[in-house]
Amino acid sequence: MTNKTMQANKLSPKKFLAPVGQLGKALGRHFPRTHLIAAGVAALALVGIGAMSGDKSEPRRHALPIKLAQAPAVAGDEITNAAEAEATPIDAPPATELRSVEQTVRSGDTLSTLFDRAGQPIETMYQVLGSSKEAKKLARLNIGETLVFHVDQEDRLQKLVRQHNRLESTEFNRKGDDTFEMSRHQLDPDSQLAYREAVIENSLFVSGIEAGLTNGMLMEIADIFGSDIDFALDIRKGDRFTVLFEENFLDGEKIGNGPIMAVSFTNRGETFEAVRYTDTAGDSNYYTPEGKSMRKAFIRTPLDIGRISSHFNPRRLHPVFKTVRPHRGTDYAAPRGTPIYATGDGRVLKAGYSKANGNYVFLQHGERYVTRYLHLTKRKVKTGQRVKQRQVIGTVGSTGYATGPHLHYEFLVDGVHRNPATIVRKLPKAKSISSKEMDRFKAHVAPALAQLARYSGETLLAQNEPTE
After folding, report:
1. Strands (E), 328-460
2. Is residue 394 within 8 Å of residue 377, measured between CB atoms?
3. I need a surface site. Which of 198, 272, 347, 355 has the fewest CB within 10 A?
4. Which class for 262: exposed (0-12), middle (13-18), buried (19 or more C-beta within 10 A)?
5. Coil, strand or helix at 85
6. What is the pLDDT of residue 223?
7. Per DSSP, what are the bridge partners of residue 369?
8. CA 300 to CA 297: how far, in whole Å?
9. Which residue has the higher pLDDT, 208 or 70?
10. Can you say how many angstroms the Cα of residue 276 is from the centroid of all Cα atoms in its chain?
């Protein structure tokens, strides 16, 4: 082959660049200028590589890496490298952080007031209220309750929390533009058994408070033994009681007391015991260690505190008219406003006012029994209403023919007045543990009764130890 032939077979730069230029014009109509520049650089590099590979005289000893310059991103660029997209991690957008705004219900506050203080529009309040039946209860908030508004960066409400107490809360979470979803939350506290005891020197309540019990627990003790002990008449100095109850803790901090688990009360030398039991139906009540119900058809007194100022007496001298007139009930002197309880389940036969009786409430219990409550300051029930045992039906007062604040209480059997202080002992008790459930009852109450007996025994032993 001659040199001329060899030269003829070689491409001249003009011949090589001519079609490239034509191609560039064609591509320029479809691609941005920056992409074309990058493509041109890549093409020239490839040509150089091809020329090097075509020369056999010098073997390639090192493959030098050739790094192509990347074209800068251009708005509207639709060409992407799939491999680079997979290899390059894409950060997820940060979660929206919520800001908490806490509002405590004060006297005179309304729900709209709280929303306004939290910077939320009235439209959002109506969206929450319309979300569920539970949400409508927000319109009846109690002083001291807390509402926590959780809002986003645009001050838009995302979650509303109603904190009922340390353990219970209700949440309303945004679901969409104008709806909220309700959920309830209940924390389980840590519970442990505690023991208290007291010997009565002055009164049940004074001695109980000194022993570290609350008013609520003392009223519960009076309720438990209300069918066996008249706490207005029977209590004597030297009576004693022991109680085993639950204390509740949250994060190591005491937040309150749970129910009484077992209790004993010695009155006038006679000891009564009661233990709490939850049956297979989920109902909790107090029973004797033998499984008999502590709850009778009627409790002995309609008051927790007070003293008998006048007994049942068919020939009593009337304090106002100074004539001998039958006193067909028992009078309990107590401070004005003291709560009065229904002594048994029943229906309000009549609730009204008369010149002699003042404000009064009559209750019908089944077919045979009627109880009457006279001289009330306020009536808490209406005629025809159903009531439960120990439901508050009024408060002590001195309306009608009365010389001072007291409750006149009557008990009728088949239309005949009977002595309220003695008739209750003769009436039937409530339902006791069935034979089918007796084994379960004994297994559940045995630990509490054993612990109550151990504590009581240790106390008696300590009291009887000789002193130097």
Report:
1. 330-333, 339-341, 346-354, 358-365, 369-379, 386-387, 392-396, 406-413, 416-418
2. yes
3. 355
4. buried
5. helix
6. 84
7. 365, 413
8. 10
9. 208
10. 22
DSSP string for 196-243? EEEE-SS-HHHHHHHTT--HHHHHHHHHHTTTT--TTTT--TT-EEEE
Banded model confidence at residue 95, pLDDT cuts 50, 70, 90: low
Number of neighbouring beta carbons within 10 Å of residue 440: 13
Q: 214, 281, 221, 278: which is closest to 248 by C-alpha?
A: 214
Q: Report the distance separating Cα 47 and Cα 112, nearest Å.
A: 78
- The distance from CA 76 to its chain's CA centroid, rounded to whole angstroms, is 57
Give dist(CA 134, CA 180) in Å, integer: 12
Is residue 170 within 8 A of residue 182, CB to CB? The reply is yes
Complete domains list, the chain, with CATH: 99-186 (3.10.450.350), 189-296+429-468 (3.10.450.350), 307-426 (2.70.70.10)
- Tokens 């229904």 locate to 342
Longest CA–CA span in the chain (Å) reads 161
3-class secondary-structure state, position 315: strand
d(CA 351, CA 342): 13
Comparing 261-275, 294-308, 437-451, which segment has the lowest mean pLDDT?
A: 294-308
pLDDT at 264: 95
Tokens at 222, concatenated: 């009076």
Q: Measure the CA–CA gap between 315 and 321, rounded to whole angstroms.
A: 14
pLDDT of residue 352: 96
**Three-class secondary structure of residue 164 per DSSP:** coil
For residue 147, what are the β-bridge partners?
A: 103, 162
State which amino acid sits at residue 349: L
Q: How many other C-beta atoms can be found within 10 angstroms of the C-beta atom of residue 264?
A: 21
pLDDT, tens digit (0-9, with 9 covering 90-100), for 382-434 = 999 999 999 999 999 999 988 899 999 999 999 999 998 888 777 776 778 99
